[in-house]
Write a structure and sequence with these properties.
Blueprint (H helix, E strand, L loop, with lengths): L2 H14 L3 E5 L5 E4 L1 H7 L3 H4 L10 H8 L8 H4 L1 E10 L5 E13 L2 E11 L1 H18 L12 H14 L5 E4 L6 H11 L7 E5 L5 H9 L16 H4 L4 E5 L6 H13 L1 E3 L6 E3 L3 E6 L3 H6 L5 H7 L2 E4 L10 H16 L3 E4 L1 H9 L5 H15 L3 E3 L6 H4 L34 H14 L13 H6 L4 H16 L4 H8 L3 H11 L3 H6 L1
Parallel strand pairs: 6-11, 6-12, 7-8, 8-11, 13-14
Antiparallel strand pairs: 1-2, 1-5, 3-4, 4-5, 9-10
Helix pairs in contact: 7-8, 11-13, 14-16, 15-22, 20-21, 21-22
Length: 516
Amino acid sequence: MDALESGRFLREVINTINDGFFLVGPDGRILMANPALERLTGYEAGELTGQTCAVLNCDACVRSRSLGGGHWCRLFDRKDEHRKRCTLVRRDGTSLTVLKNAKVLKDGDRVIAAVETITDITAVVEKDRRIEELSRLLGSDEGFAGMVGTSAVMQRVFRIIERAAESDAPVLVLGPSGTGKELAARAIHELGRRKNGAYVQLNCAALNEALLESELFGHVRGAFTGAIRDRQGRFEAAHGGDIFLDEIGDIPLPIQVKLLRVLETKRIERVGDNASREVDVRVIAATNRDLGRLVRAGRFREDLLFRINVIPIHLPPLAERREDIPLLAAHFLKGIRERDGRDVTGLTPEALRLLTAYSWPGNVRELRSALEYACVIAEGGRLGVEHLPQHIAGAAWHPECAGPGMTAGHAGHGGTGDRHAGPHPALAGHEAQGQAARAEGGGMPPAGSLAGVSAGAFMYGGRPARHERERAELVEALRAAGGNVSEAARLLGVHRGTVRNRMLRYGIDVHRAVGG
């Protein structure tokens, strides 16, 4: 193979390289460029050839040339560059982050040219930015974008939120009242590509049909009595960003039809107007209702459900992540101290055990309210059982053990409608036991009859047989496992967090259990 053939084949090899490749003469002018460089920079090879490499506006090269030297660029003095991170400017004015490698070619002492390759690392930079953002959110005292929890179920929720933020598809946040659906929606916006755009929220249950249509889509002057001027709706206000529709299960059917059309066409019509307007909005919806049941009842459109339920996120009730209660309590108490200046230092072990054992039908919101109440009652120091709301201190084990003023909702019976279909999941076992006890004993004790009983009696005395058996099995498993919680969980066939919860619930100290 002669030199001419070698040169031709070398050029073919260079043209197949996926990284940008170019030769620069000692005077800084580009001698050749491969197709990958054309693709990365937006310039054609003919536009680059003959121009100085300054056309690429590389920030590292600008600094290097400003330092001076015996050649056009200090690269010719240093001889090479290895994995240097720098930013170029494409032909369309956008920036491109790359890793650059360069080598000076010499014939003896004479500099012939420099060969440079660039690798696009824009995706890596974006991923690093997201990791840094997530680290900041997870590492802060506010938890994950204000959502606190280290349980496995919440870590899964955080991962789904992160993935949902990367998409422009509609998101449906599901969960009982008080689980943090608004925080989840805000996190999706803050972590997403639309974070610099508007974030507009609307509670769909707060308005009647006529007002809701105007709030969502806007109206023109004279559309109805009182419409004295044109007004943009929430969708227009959210253009380029996200709109959060809370309580979407309460939207009237006529509005559902119009909302479906907006989701499909990306266009809205103001009330009283026949001209459509384009909107670029990602929809995040939330509800505590069973939308499937509403569809079957004819109160929610199935096609709208399919349209908004692209990325569902289920927030668990607090009763399903009890291991997060100590962390949540510390988080809320810290906020109350900073806001009100109260000298509250924490919770006693007995108070924490009660909080962990309670069923929390109101979820995280109810926990926060209970701690607000306790901080008002306490004069300072640690919060004890005596500072907790009566329905929590007196009903840690049985929903029927309710003090005066405690409603059926507190006891976990839930009322009617699709929001509460049957007893709270965490209280299903207690409900069955309560029914059996009432069948044998002739009914529930009168409200307030337990008011004089200490909270300790519910924690350590008078347990149902199932609780005594559960406690004994836990102690036996801990002894067999030599105090290893993970091994005890394996022996019992439950999650490690469940073992921790039961240890807290029954006041079991692992060292005493093993030693005893």
